Structures are given as structure tokens and as C-alpha cells.
Amino acid sequence: MTTVEKNVKTKSGVVTSDKMDQTVTVMIERKIKHPLYGKYVKKSTKIHAHDPGNKCQQGDFVKIAECRPISKTKTWKVVEIVDSAK
């Protein structure tokens, strides 16, 4: 059999909360252009991500990837910590 590689969605953002066990809240910011005025506006999304080793801290810049549903709100997992908070 041959192995099939899936296209996995990845995003990056800042950890805003690490108070839960094995879960972090990641805020992802993006800039979109206003349809009428043309000004770029910041929009943000909060996502719960699975962190099995509780390695992430508040303020870390992390990369997350989509995965199977782990709980009611968790469908993302932490792939790597890009930049650590001081």
C-alpha cells in the first residue's frame, strides 16, 4: 500500500491562556480589507488547541494544525513553539 499525504491546515498565533490542562487558547489575527472604504481592519479568532505536554505559556507564538476532534471545542493541536515568551 502507498501512503497518502493529507493537506493539513496550519495557522500561527499567540497563546492568550494556558490555564486549562493540556489545552491552550490561541488568538489568530488577520487583516482584511473593508469592502466599501478600503481600509485594512484587524480581525481575530480564538481557538482552543491541544497541548499534551503543557509546554506552552502565555505569550508564546505557536504554530497549530487541524486534527480530528479531541473534545467539543478542540479540533487543533500545537505543532511547535515558534517564539517563546520571556
Automatic annotation (TrEMBL):
Q: Which GO terms describe its cellular component?
A: ribosome
Under CDD domains, the record lists: Ribosomal_uS17
Q: Decide whether keyword Membrane is in the record.
A: no
Q: What keywords sit in the KW lines?
A: Ribonucleoprotein, Ribosomal protein, RNA-binding, rRNA-binding
Pfam families attached to this UniProt entry:
Ribosomal_S17 (PF00366)
Q: Which domain of life is it from?
A: Bacteria
Give the multimer and partner information.
Part of the 30S ribosomal subunit.
Function in brief: One of the primary rRNA binding proteins, it binds specifically to the 5'-end of 16S ribosomal RNA.
This chain belongs to the protein called: Small ribosomal subunit protein uS17
- Tell me what organism the protein belongs to: Marinicella sediminis
